[in-house]
Design a protein that fits this description.
about 220 residues, mainly alpha, membrane, cell membrane, ABC/ECF_trnsptr_transmembrane, transmembrane, Cobalt/nickel transport system permease protein
Length: about 220
């Protein structure tokens, strides 16, 4: 169900619910758990990947939680842990179920500045290419017998690698920009397929907002 909801409505629902969770008390935060769990049901098909994402995020969150425990504030530590994980699960269930380009298109309809969307679009589009370039360079270095150590040669090798990536990225951006100009680029990307809201989208938004309102009002 969640995958078929209009991305514009999913973004608005996420922002409202994340705002309510971030400002809620511990009892209100726990009350949001059933809704977030229900919305996250489609993610359980790829449970291993979701589990890795949560563990990676919680590895940074652990320092904050431990600091609060050492300061004698276990309730604050629990609030921070629950809020952060609920918001992360909410973003995964509502945003990761939509292709990146559709999310950017939806943000365009929500009046996000066009320049920011273009930067995000091009960054996402060519980030994988830069990564593949980096992976190829590392494999090439290892095939020549390179082994990472804590010495001057290792630092120099990684410095050269980063410099090559920066040079490649700059030259690639120039070529892409000239190619875009040759194809008539005038400051914005034309979109030929637009979203069309349906009754189920309005129902989804109304139900999620109503749930949040009931939780805040009741507790």
């Amino acid at each position: 169900m969640v995958e078929k909801v209009d991305p514009r409505f999913k973004i608005v629902s996420f922002l409202i619910l994340a705002w309510l969770i971030a400002l809620s008390s511990i009892r209100e935060t726990i009350s949001f758990l059933p809704l977030v769990t229900f919305l996250s049901l489609p993610l359980f098909k790829n449970f291993k990947r979701i589990w890795k994402i949560l563990l990676f995020a919680d590895s940074f969150l652990l320092l904050v939680v431990l600091s609060q425990l050492l300061l004698g504030s276990p309730e604050v530590a629990l609030e921070v842990f629950l809020r952060s994980n609920l918001i992360l699960l909410l973003s995964l269930s509502l945003l990761s179920t939509t292709p990146t380009f559709e999310l950017l298109h939806a943000l365009h309809h929500l009046k996000v500045p066009n320049s920011l969307l273009q930067i995000a679009f091009l960054t996402y589009r060519y980030l994988h290419e830069v990564r593949s370039r980096y992976t190829a360079a590392v494999k090439s270095a290892k095939s020549r017998g390179f082994k990472a150590r804590t010495d001057k040669f290792t630092y120099q090798t990684y410095g050269n690698l980063i410099g090559n990536l920066l040079t490649y990225s700059f030259l690639k951006s120039e070529r892409v920009y000239r190619a875009m100009l040759c194809r008539g680029f005038s400051g914005y990307f034309p979109v030929y397929r637009h979203f069309k809201a349906s009754p189920k989208d309005f129902i989804f938004l109304a139900l999620t907002v109503a749930y949040g309102a009931v939780v805040v009002w009741k507790f």
